[in-house]
Design goal:
heterodimer, A: about 325 residues, Glutaconate Coenzyme A-transferase, nine-stranded mixed β-sheet, four-stranded antiparallel β-sheet, 13 helices, globular, B: alpha/beta, eight-stranded mixed β-sheet, two-stranded antiparallel sheet, 7 helices, about 25% helix, about 20% strand
Chain lengths: ~325, ~260
């Protein structure tokens, strides 16, 4: 295949399908064991300085916020991050833990743009390579498939392609240009779900975002869950399992784990909290005060929940609405 | 101007561009309101597609993000982002809605950086799903809330999302699906389309009280004018009532 164009962006995690196969073969197994542990243990055991990590879904929606707060508390450094992110990426950036971002979208939708990624990127502290949302998710999909790349028809003809690490080739079947997206095999995936059993069989309600792909593209996978259910319950409705246990390394119980984001059918987003952070993020000192109060100031997720207060959480539960 | 603000005018006009019994890939912000309004009025069978998996939601409550639970409330399906992007790539989605910080005469959009790429003068949110939407949807409707020469520029600093790139045939040459691309540009002043022969943006209608000259003055590139320039319809009382009372009662968007 003739390469017509090569993106000039840095490939922060080059695809290594054989290395990933070897990892899957030697580190993942069929043993149905209890993987429930405290977030402190899960993060210290499975996240290392320099790791390439990703979170799913995104900052205000079913995001593994309690796990991210723990990553920040433990100060895991020199992370490379897949950024389809809002609040979770902001916390990592505010704590200066990120060296490189595969960036797709970093803003707060209805609330506007946060100052954290702007500060980090504009002063050159964090390196970036840009992708489209489809592009980065297809990178997870390629990794989940165990192949080095997949062809897509996004990004063609644009600077998004030029500054990515994708390539354009002449498709040998149609003779037309097609974009090859490199697989993104991650060191660690962090995913928050509605229900899991103690072995890590997971259920997600509502949209599944990119949980299916990310779970299968991660060497190490930490699950946080609103609720732990029995394996018998899982076996009764196996079609509802989005992530089977053999992909999972740790299960952390975290009711309200997506706060201040929402969790469909359980609790609505905490708009007040989110907007306050967004305001604080404009000032580096205030951003640190936020971290001191909500992250470093809490020993664990339970303390964070106590700080938020049950009254507030019950209100968010009443606001989410039914099916 | 009628008794409504520019954002409300913009939403009502964008909403009218959506036909019934079609599909629309709906992004954050004004597209959500336009789609919700269309669904309540002239397009009850509109199938809204949200990038993280919501298909055919009721849109009774305004989503605040493209993945929040309102994007799949009473929907026909709640899947994931690959499914949505692949549905667009297969050619099923008629309309895409996009905005941007900068736009050029071919409808190329910048939502990535102002200035050089890295480190940039200003880092913008990035593509998100915009590049995918602009690559795959048949007709892209572009919404620009401020029509001025800072945003309508001869050359965008960064092409995040493809318009017609460098002109006729350029999309196909780059490998993008044929017969796709920008369809309309809706702004606080006017409505534009793209000349079929040149693929350049063209003025086709102005808002009441806005002159052709005003639009041309506020455009940073040469803007051809259609033979007949119409006046865009003023929002009806019914549209405004639904918009204010049902769709965005908290005024997340329409107060801006």
């Amino acid at each position: 295949m003739d390469v017509i164009e090569s993106g000039i962006g840095e490939l922060f995690q080059p695809p290594d399908p054989d290395g990933f196969r070897e990892w899957v073969h030697t580190k993942k197994n069929t043993q149905m064991k209890d993987k429930v542990m405290a977030e402190h243990e899960a993060v210290s055991q499975f996240v290392q300085d320099g790791d390439y990590i990703g979170t799913e879904l995104y900052g205000t929606v079913r995001a593994p916020m309690s796990l991210i707060r723990e990553v920040v508390r433990q100060g895991k450094k020199h992370l490379r991050v897949a950024g389809q992110g809002i609040h979770e990426i902001d916390l990592l950036l505010a704590a200066d833990l990120v060296d490189a971002l595969d960036i797709t979208y970093v803003a707060w939708e209805v609330y506007g743009i946060s100052a954290c990624p702007r500060r980090a990127v504009e002063c050159g502290l964090v390196k970036t390579t840009d992708w489209s949302n489809g592009g980065i998710t297809w990178r997870f999909k390629a990794a989940a498939m165990g192949v080095p790349f997949i062809p897509v028809r996004s990004m063609l003809g644009t600077d998004t392609l030029k500054y990515s690490a994708a390539k354009v080739v002449k498709d040998p079947f149609t003779d037309k240009p097609v974009c090859l997206i490199p697989a993104l095999f991650m060191d660690v995936g962090l995913i928050h779900v509605h229900k899991a059993d103690k072995c890590g069989n997971c259920r997600i309600e509502g949209i599944s975002g990119f949980a299916h792909e990310m779970a299968r593209a991660s060497k190490k996978l930490i699950i946080s869950t609103e609720e732990i259910v029995s394996t018998e319950e899982i076996r009764k409705y196996p079609e509802q399992t989005v992530i089977p246990y053999y992909l999972v390394d740790a299960v952390v119980k975290a009711k309200y784990g997506s706060h201040p984001g929402e969790m469909c059918y359980r609790y609505w987003r905490d708009g007040e909290h989110l907007q306050q952070f967004l305001k604080d993020s404009k000032d580096p000192a205030k951003t640190m005060t936020y971290l001191d109060k909500w992250v470093y100031g809490c020993k664990d997720h339970q303390q964070y929940i106590n700080l938020v207060g049950m009254e507030r959480l019950k209100k968010l539960e009443s606001e989410i609405g039914g099916r | 101007m009628p008794d409504c603000n520019q954002t409300e005018f913009l939403i009502c006009l964008a909403s009218k561009l959506i036909e019934d019994r079609t599909t629309a890939f709906v992004g954050t912000g004004i597209p959500m309101l336009a789609a919700a309004l269309a669904k309540r009025l002239h397009a009850p069978n509109l199938v809204s597609i949200f990038e993280f998996g919501g298909t055919g939601a009721s849109l009774e409550k305004l989503p605040l993000g493209v993945g929040d639970s309102r994007t799949f409330h009473k929907a026909v399906a709640a899947s994931g982002i690959c499914d949505m992007m692949e549905t667009a790539q297969r050619g099923f989605i008629e309309y895409g809605f996009l905005g941007g910080a900068q736009i050029d005469s071919y409808g190329n959009l910048n939502t990535t950086v102002i200035g050089q790429y890295w480190p940039p003068k200003v880092r913008l949110p990035g593509s998100g799903g915009a590049n995918d939407v602009g690559s795959h949807c048949w007709k892209t409707i572009i919404i620009m809330r401020q029509h001025d020469t800072r945003r309508f520029v001869p050359k965008v600093d960064f092409i995040t999302t493809p318009g017609y790139l460098t002109g006729p045939g350029a999309r196909e040459k780059a490998g993008l699906p044929p017969n796709t691309g920008p369809y309309r540009v809706v702004t606080n002043l006017a409505l534009m389309d793209f000349e079929p022969e040149t693929r350049r943006m063209r003025l086709i209608a102005t808002h009441p009280g806005v002159t052709k000259e005003q639009v041309i003055e506020n455009t940073g590139f040469e803007l051809p004018v259609a033979d007949e320039v119409k006046t865009n319809p003023t929002p009806t009382d019914e549209e405004l009532k639904i918009l204010r009372e049902k769709i965005d009662p908290e005024r997340y968007y329409i107060s801006k």
